[in-house]
Design a protein that fits this description.
The chain contains 9 helices and 3 strands, in the order βααββααααααα. By secondary structure, it is mostly helical. The protein has 2 domains: 74 residues, Glutaredoxin (3-Layer(aba) Sandwich), CATH 3.40.30; 117 residues, Glutathione S-transferase Yfyf (Class Pi), Chain A, domain 2 (Up-down Bundle), CATH 1.20.1050. The chain has a 3-stranded antiparallel beta sheet with strand order 1-2-3, with helices on one face. β2 and β3 form a beta hairpin. α1 runs parallel beside α3. The mean pLDDT is 95.
Length: 210
């Protein structure tokens, strides 16, 4: 199993967490997004969208973090990443999409580059742009978490897709300097997830040089 990703990629982070939660072994060839390796002919043959993650598994190449996590859930159902109740399953997916579909696509590298090249946005403008959408997502999560019954994780005693997505949003917020102080429930959940081995092992960190 190979996960084509990048250490700073939030979407790759989500899949790494899911793989670790499932107890699956994998290699992670690095696709350096900052140097444009995602646009080389070699990688475009892997994913024509020129984006990470891409997971090579069972003779197939899967892309898009949510699609990959859903596949892992169906292929390796234990431990589960989704609740058993149909309503809760839909709600878990909705929580995940708040960042995967609504916020994250607005500040991925190709969007930031477009804002710079086309509109002359400088680094401060890019930070403000990303911070705005990340803060909007945090506000939504804070309200949604307030409606959940007390539990260590979003849907009970074990972390799942909703926790992965919310933590990835928090990680992105840190990368772009978003003030987390107003979001008490999100911060509490994030701190709990920091104590889970799968999340610690997957967290974005620059590769060590030897």
């Amino acid at each position: 199993m190979k996960l084509y990703g990048f250490w700073r990629s939030i979407a790759s982070y989500r899949v790494r967490v899911a793989l670790h939660l499932k107890g699956l072994d994998f290699e992670e060839p690095q696709v350096n997004l900052l140097e444009g390796h995602q646009f080389t002919p070699e990688f475009l043959a892997i994913n024509p969208s020129g984006a990470v993650p891409a997971l090579e598994i069972d003779g197939h190449m899967l892309t898009q973090s949510m699609a990959i996590m859903e596949y892992l859930e169906e292929r390796f159902p234990n431990p589960p990443l989704l609740p058993t109740d149909p309503w809760d399953r839909a709600e878990a997916r909705a929580l995940a999409q708040d960042t995967v579909a609504d916020a994250h696509p607005l500040f991925v590298p190709r969007v930031r580059k477009y804002l710079t090249v086309t509109f002359g946005a400088d680094e401060a403008a890019i930070q403000a742009w990303a911070g705005h959408w990340l803060a909007k997502g945090l506000q939504s999560y804070e309200v949604r978490l307030a409606k959940r019954p007390p539990a260590p994780f979003v849907f009970g005693d074990t972390p799942g897709i909703a926790d992965i997505a919310i933590k990835s949003h928090v990680v992105a917020s840190g990368l772009f300097g978003v003030d987390m102080a107003p979001f008490e429930r999100v911060r509490a959940l994030s701190a709990t997830l920091d104590g889970v081995d799968a999340f610690r092992r997957a967290r974005p960190a620059a590769p060590q040089t030897v």
